Amino acid sequence: VTISRSAFPNRLEHEEVLNRFSALVRGFKPEAVDNGEGGMTYQPEVSRLLSDLLPTPTNADGSPGKAPFVAGKTRTYFRAGSLEHLENERVKAFGLYATAIQAQVRGYQSRSTYANWRISSIKVQARFRSHAARRRYNKVRLACITLQCWTRQHEARAEMKKRRENYRATIIQTHWRIVVAMASLKRSREASIKIQAQMRGAIQRPVYRKELTEAIEEAKLENQLKSLQRKLEEAEAKRIDAEKKAAEAAAESAKEKEVVVYRDRPQEAAAPAAPEPTKSAEEETKIVEAPASLPGQLTEQQQILMDESGKMLEYLRKEVFKLRGQNSQLRADFDLLKENNQRLMDANASAGASFAALNQHAKQLNKTNTKLMSELEKYKKAVHKLNLDKVETKEELQMKNASYVAEVQSRLQYQNTMNGIINLVQERCRDVRLVEDVLALYDDCEAKAGVDGEMVDHHTVSPQHNLPPTPDSTANKGAAGMFKSFFGGGY
């Protein structure tokens, strides 16, 4: 281990070597190679990269010297000074990159300043030119207004003269136009009256026909009732005549019977036997009343016929009134049903239109939903990819931070060692010029590293922040400031 550390004091992983020093070779793209054991290795790429950056030195006799590095399976071992050389080259490359970035930024700032100055000058020129143009325009405008005023005055005078000449003609034209308009109004009014009459007639004719039909039906019913009444009156008159004739016939027959009885039995009236005259009186009464029984029977039949006819007429009247009420109710129900049917048809049409609109809107919403779902899937994939990149970047930053901290610590340790060497030289060397030359070289190195005026946060870097400044602490500050300026203070 001691021999290895003395021959190769520095060593790094292949991935770290590629990450740190691949930027020094333009267009270099590392690719992993199968190691034959089912894994991947970067050993050939590291050898190719470091061969370009650290060529093998040659001895005085022309033979190749010791290689400045050796690439193992997983690590690269550097001889003394090789890693420092690569770090210096890396610092120089980053310095060149920073210079290029600063040149771009300064060029952008200069171009922005020039563009602002150019815009300002253009605005000033535009203001001046607009002021001059406005003054010229105002002069021309004033002249034009004067000329227009004179021209309008001349035209107004001519128009006034013409109106005065045409005033009476205008009055005549006005009266004539009034007469023509009144005639046209009268014709229009008569035509509108005729149109209204035709329209009202067209509206009232169906109503008239319906009422005429009802009146005809009512007239028919009335005629039927009148004919029935007339028949009843005739029957009543016949009944009365029959009763009179029957009464007269009964009276005549009674007289004839009485005469016949008295002729056949003249002596029986004086007979003392009472039962026989009584019996004959009863017989006579029967004889007299017998012919009167027939007119009585006809009267009852006629009365029954009259009662039935009256009941029939009353029933017919009730049925007519009932049918009229039902007809009116049915007409009202028909009108209501017609109105409801029209409303339902309108509602059906509006519902059909609304359904079509809703169907179209639903189709549009489905298309929008499908589009949104596809976009959502894309966004989910993008977010997942960003999360993976974030995790990888975080891990890479942590690895770089650890490597940078380790590098800073090694550099600080190296700087402390150099400071100890310088202090030892100052203490033990008696040649003042040599000490001054060493210090000058050290200061030149610090100046080249760009640490003039750089200060370091003693709470995080220097463990001697409570001690007075010494050459050692000053050297520590310069080295730490150099590394902190190199890494941007962000780690």
Helix-strand blueprint:
Elements: H1 2-7, E1 10-13, H2 14-21, E2 33-34, E3 40-41, H3 43-53, E4 69-71, E5 75-78, H4 82-165, H5 167-264, H6 275-428, H7 432-448, H8 471-487
Antiparallel strand pairs: 1-5, 2-3, 4-5
What can you tell me about this protein's structure?
The chain has helices spanning 2-7, 14-21, 43-53, 82-165, 167-264, 275-428, 432-448, 471-487, and strands at residues 10-13, 33-34, 40-41, 69-71, 75-78. With 491 residues, it is mainly alpha-helical. The strands form 2 sheets. It has a 3-stranded antiparallel sheet with strand order 1-5-4. It has a two-stranded antiparallel sheet with strand order 2-3. Helix 2 packs across helix 3 (43-53), helix 5 packs antiparallel against helix 6 and helix 6 packs across helix 8 (471-487). The longest helix has 154 residues, at 275-428. The radius of gyration is 70 Å and the shape is elongated. The two termini are 32 Å apart.
Features:
two-stranded antiparallel ribbon; 5 strands; 491 residues; 8 helices; elongated; three-stranded antiparallel sheet; mainly alpha
Count of separate DSSP helical elements: 8
Strand sequence of the main sheet, in spatial order? 1-5-4
Biggest pleated sheet = 3 strands, antiparallel
Q: SS-based structural class?
A: mainly alpha
Low-confidence stretches: 259-298, 450-491
- Mean pLDDT across residues: 76
Helix residue percentage? over 70%
Distance between the termini: 32 Å
Q: Topology as H/E string?
A: HEHEEHEEHHHHH
Strand content: under 5%
How many β-strands, per DSSP? Answer: 5
- Our Rg estimate from Cα atoms comes to 70 Å
Shape: elongated
